[in-house]
Amino acid sequence: MRLIFKFLLLLITVSSITGCERPPIETVQTGFRGTGMEQIYNPRTLIKQASLNQAPVALDAASEEGPKAKQVYQNVQVLGDLSVSQFTRHMLSITQWVAPEAGCAYCHNLENLADDSKYTKVVARRMIQMTQRVNQDWKSHVAETGVTCYTCHRGNNIPANVWFEPKDRKYANSVMGNPADQNIATQTVGLTSLPIDPYTPFLKDDASIRLNGNQAMAGVGANANRVSLKQADYTYSLMVHMSESLGVNCTYCHNTRNFQSWEESRPQRVTAWHGIRMARDLNNDYIIPLTEKFPASRLGPKGDVAKVNCTTCHQGAYKPLYGAPMAKDHPELQALVKP
Question: Which of 25, 95, 193, 238 is the most buried if burial means most Cβ atoms within 10 Å?
Answer without folding.
Answer: 238
